[in-house]
Design a protein that fits this description.
heterodimer; A: mainly alpha; Arp2/3 complex 21 kDa subunit ARPC3; 6 helices; globular; B: alpha+beta; mini-chromosome maintenance (MCM) complex, domain 2; 2 domains; 33% strand; binds zinc ion
Chain lengths: 174, 135
């Protein structure tokens, strides 16, 4: 019975976080930052993914990330935009999971590497689509933008994480 | 936050800085031709010496390139992100303008890879033939 409660708790938490990640994705489309960099994303939705990784675990975080990508893609994007997001999301997730496993970094480190690698993943797909390696000309600014937003997202996640842990503990005693 | 986080961030910025330096010091040759590639196939090659507007209409969409004083820029595009219009003027061989939704890449080249070279080659051959005839 306890197991069942924790299962349903996890599922509802995942649903909530998917909704939250989608809101962040939508907010990101409203922010008019256009530096003309192919493959650039601010990556605000990563706040939800990185928090889920530390709060719930890698499986839940990956699930939330994939569901968000497909829902946002079907609602606002195209087939190609799903491919870019998928590459960015997977590369970013693997980088963050790896850093968390080493236990040598905090959630800020995971978030900033995730942000940088998200843009790297998108750029890799872009280079494959146009079959032109000159596109890596854009790598340095993409790395920097991803890293900066990753740090900001990570600092936010650092504050949110204890609140999330408290909510989960309180829900356990109810 | 841990000390390693700061080291990691510093390492990424350092790597980006080094890469920028390498890019900054290489491929600065000013080209003389513009090659437009769409969906991996060469769409056309244009002279950078001639001020002109190039309208490109394909199944992927509409783009207009503007060549002026040896540099090229994207002045019109109906792609959803509009990133290509923000990439500015380019004039050196390392630079590109990319319109990802239209699978379009604009590159600068030193020599015309389409027909310029073959023209030069045939010129050279006829000169040689002429030399032989004279001899
Ligand atoms: Zn474009």
């Amino acid at each position: 019975m306890n197991n069942f409660i924790s299962m349903s708790k996890k599922i509802s938490a995942c649903g909530l976080l998917v909704a939250l990640a989608m809101i962040f994705s939508y907010i990101e489309t409203l922010i008019p930052i256009n530096m003309g960099l192919p493959g650039m994303k601010l990556g605000i939705a990563n706040l939800v993914i990185v928090t889920a990784l530390y709060l719930l675990g890698p499986r839940e975080a990956l699930l939330i990330s994939l569901v968000r990508i497909f829902l946002v893609g079907f609602l606002f994007g195209s087939g190609m935009s799903i491919l870019y997001s998928l590459a960015g999301g997977l590369v970013s997730f693997l980088a963050m999971m790896f850093l968390k496993r080493t236990e040598k970094f905090s959630i800020v480190g995971a978030s900033l590497l995730g942000g940088a690698m998200h843009n790297v993943g998108q750029l890799l797909v872009a280079a494959a689509v146009v079959e032109n390696a000159k596109i890596f000309y854009y790598l340095p600014p993409l790395l920097c933008v991803g890293c900066v937003t990753g740090i900001l997202v990570g600092l936010l996640a650092l504050r949110i994480l204890p609140m999330g842990q408290k909510i989960i503990q309180n829900a356990g005693t109810l | 936050m841990k000390k390693n986080d700061i080291i990691l961030a510093a390492a990424i910025f350092l790597f980006a800085g080094l890469l920028s330096a390498i890019i900054f010091f290489s491929g600065n040759e000013r080209g003389s031709f513009v090659t437009v590639t769409i969906d991996k196939k060469v769409y056309g090659t244009y002279s950078l010496g001639e001020n002109q507007d190039i309208t490109i209409d394909t199944e992927f969409g509409h783009n207009v390139l503007h060549i002026e004083n040896g540099s090229v820029s994207m002045t019109e595009a109906d792609c959803p992100d509009g990133y290509c219009k923000r990439q500015g003027k380019i004039s050196t061989e390392k630079e590109t303008i990319v319109c990802l939704p239209h699978k379009l890449v604009v590159e600068i080249r030193g020599t015309n890879t389409d027909d310029g070279q073959t023209e030069e080659q045939t010129d050279g051959q006829t000169d040689e033939d002429y030399d032989i005839l004279v001899k």
